[in-house]
Amino acid sequence: MNQVMDVLLKRKSVRAYEERQISAEVRADILKATLRAPTAGNLMLYSIVDVTDQAIKDRLAVTCDNQPFIARAPMVWLFLADYQRWHDYFLASGVEEICAQKKIPMRKPEQGDLFLACCDALIAAQNAVIAAESFGIGSCYIGDIMEQYETHKELFNLPQYTFPICLLVFGYPTQQQKDREYTSRFDEKFIVFENQYRHLDKTEFDAMFAECEQQMPRGKAMQGIANYGQATYLRKFAADFTVEMTRSVRLMLKEWMK
User: What is the DSSP-derived secondary structure letter of residue 157?
Assistant: First the structure.
């Protein structure tokens, strides 16, 4: 197995870090790899906020669903889907004038532009994750950055055409984290289809989630819950943080389309 495959297959989320800083040289190399990520039309529709202020890290540890390890991470990067930069450049380049001259409306960023920018930002984030992993630095995606939009907008001075799509925290893993078992993934037969999408049937779902069912806790908190599907729905899709994320994202979309 080559080194790249080894890094990809052994990567796992890391939420506990040694009290060890990431050197400026390693940080610079991770950033170089990040900025080489594939990007739509070479537009680089993303920005990265390097969070170095401990007070901001402490705040994020609270606003991102109360996760204290965020505050202890030596490197924290916020990835923004960003069309603001291009919109500003278009205005500075006289696009309004050329549109008026040609009698066509100047189009502002819309839903499709947002989704494309989100793709750019997430691809760049994954480059950062793998580059960090190659240096022995663990990482964890924090999707909760999409919650609490009003707070994060003020905290990072976010303009209209930016969208905080993910937060990444980095650090050298503790020995306990190194020794921790990898989380399993679903078998490819349930994920990869040939040519067309295919709905799974009950038998396939039973096979797909057999391991999850075996590992599911059976304590008092699980009373009345019959299976892993019900447990996951209540723990994830109907949870308070998901309701807040939905509210927050709806507000961000409204702001983007305003």
Answer: T
Identify the CA nearest to 139 among candidates 152, 128, 153, 147: 128
Would you call 165 helix, strand, or coil by DSSP?
Answer: strand
Which tokens in the block code for residue 164?
């905080």
Contact 52, 139 (CB under 8 A): no
Tokens of 219: 């304590």
165 and 81 in contact (C-beta within 8 Å)? Answer: yes
Alpha-carbon separation of residue 58 from 42, 70, 89 (angstroms): 35, 7, 34
| Lookup: tokens for 179 | 């020794």
Q: By three-state DSSP, how is residue 27 classified? A: helix
| Per-residue confidence (pLDDT) for residue 88, from 0 to 100 | 98
pTM reported for the whole predicted model: 0.95
Return d(Cα 59, Cα 87) in angstroms, integer: 30
SS (H, E, C) 203-242: HHHHHHCHHHHHHCCCCHHHCCCCCHHHHHHHHHHCCHHH
Q: What is the pLDDT of residue 2?
A: 93
Please, are residues 121 and 45 in contact by the beta-carbon 8 Å criterion? yes
Strand partners, 139: 13, 170
Measure the CA–CA gap between 166 and 176, rounded to whole angstroms.
26
pLDDT tens column, 112-138: 999 999 999 999 999 999 999 999 999
137: left (phi over 0), alpha (psi -120 to 50) or beta: beta
All structural domains of the chain: 3-183 (3.40.109.10)
Strand partners, 165: none
The DSSP 8-state label assigned to residue 173 in this structure reads B
For the segment 7-26, the average pLDDT, to the nearest whole number, is 96
Across the chain, how many H-helices and E-strands are there? 13, 4
